[in-house]
Specification:
- The structure is a single chain.
- By secondary structure, the chain is mainly α.
- The chain has two domains: about 15-155, no CATH class; about 160-360, no CATH class.
- Helices cover about 55% and strands about 0% of the residues.
- It has 20 helices and no strands.
- It is globular.
Length: about 375
């Protein structure tokens, strides 16, 4: 297949730009909590808690009103007694999955919160009591959201979840592992393995770390592929899942060949250059200007060795690291050793997750 022309820069789809709206959507308190049941889980550690006692006290209204609404008031007090405040305060240790589900929704919120209407309660309460409850709820929710560090939240949303939020100190080590060894590091492997890899001093140490944690790395790749939903990669996703299944069944070489084909297919569909003369220019890891570029650079850096020029008649020594031309022209058991097979699956998962997260294959939407 003819090589593509060298790229001028990275495409940035307008549909994926991230910013904060001028105001929140006009939704009721009920719809907000129904739509985002994991909100408390994902931000409990970084915001104050609701003062449930204050809300509960608002239910203690005058005796005359209590006589008219005894049944309703009793149900309110019963509900308050059922709320486990201790459980709410212990939600700082949240699961990554729940946090990820709500991260994108949270990024669209700004501290300014509109008045929240609760029309379903209006028939049961006097206007003065209803207004008081509404003011308490509005004040407390506004206080909660004003305490959120929105810049930090956006940063955590963009940085690969297996990297520390403050990753800058690791950049030189990340660059070495990416450019010198073609080691996939974006999204996989999990953070504890990632940190061991980037702080290791030699390629041999990193190889041994991957060998020790092969099962965990495969599990991380499997989770990414299993949760992928992306129209652009719809033809490749089922094949990627079968490749992971093949690994779990012990058919690593079959999976590695499949992963190499899937990676090349996605790259070709993105129209990224595979010209051997411009690999470092087009794919090498360098200091990026934005977080989006950092993720893309970290994902593409392994392509410098993946697309290295080689064929049987080239006279050049066979590549030791995973190389697409080696797999295509003279695949051997030696080349598809334990290390290269794992790298192939890691590269597949890393690339597909980056394409999904950044929306790289989606058409840009013109600004209104």
């Amino acid at each position: 297949m003819a090589d593509k022309q060298e790229e001028v820069g990275f495409r940035r789809p307008a549909s994926r730009s991230i910013g904060f709206p001028a105001a929140l959507p006009s939704e009721s308190l009920t719809s907000i909590f129904v739509a985002q049941t994991g909100l408390a889980d994902s931000i409990a550690a970084m915001m104050p808690k609701f003062n449930l006692a204050e809300i509960a006290n608002a239910a203690s209204i005058s005796a005359a009103l209590a006589t008219e609404n005894t049944k309703w008031i009793s149900s309110i007090h019963a509900l308050m007694r059922k709320i486990d405040v201790t459980a709410l305060s212990g939600m700082a240790e949240i699961s990554r999955s729940l946090a990820d589900q709500n991260m994108r929704w949270l990024a669209t919120i700004q501290p300014a919160l509109p008045k929240i209407e609760i029309p379903s309660l209006a028939p049961f309460v006097a206007p003065w009591w209803f207004d008081g409850l509404r003011e308490i709820v509005n004040a407390q929710i506004s206080g909660v959201l004003s305490g959120v560090d929105w810049d930090q939240l956006r940063r955590r949303m963009l940085v690969p979840e297996n990297w520390p939020t403050e990753f800058e100190d690791y950049l030189p080590m990340i660059e070495e592992a990416l450019n010198a060894e073609g080691l996939p590091l974006a999204w996989v492997p999990r953070r504890e393995v990632f940190l061991r890899l980037v702080t290791a001093t030699t390629a041999e140490e990193r190889l041994e770390i991957l060998r020790e944690h092969r099962d965990e790395v495969l599990e991380d790749c499997g989770k990414i592929i299993e949760n992928l939903e992306d129209d652009f990669m719809a033809p490749q996703i089922p094949l990627a899942r079968e490749a992971v299944s093949a690994c779990k069944a012990g058919h690593w070489r079959v999976a590695a060949v499949s992963a190499v084909v899937i990676v090349h297919s996605v790259v070709e569909n993105l129209e990224w250059s595979t010209n051997p003369q411009g690999l470092m220019k087009n794919h090498g890891f360098a200091a990026p200007s934005t977080l989006e570029e950092l993720i893309e650079r970290a994902t593409r850096a392994p392509f410098v060795s993946f697309y290295v020029e080689w064929h049987p008649k080239s006279g050049k020594p066979q590549p030791r690291g995973l190389a697409r031309n080696m797999v295509s022209h003279r695949v051997t058991d030696t080349h598809l050793d334990e290390h290269n097979c794992l790298i192939a699956v890691m590269l597949m998962a890393s690339l597909m997750e980056t394409v999904n997260q950044l929306g790289l294959g989606r058409p840009a939407v013109e600004a209104a």
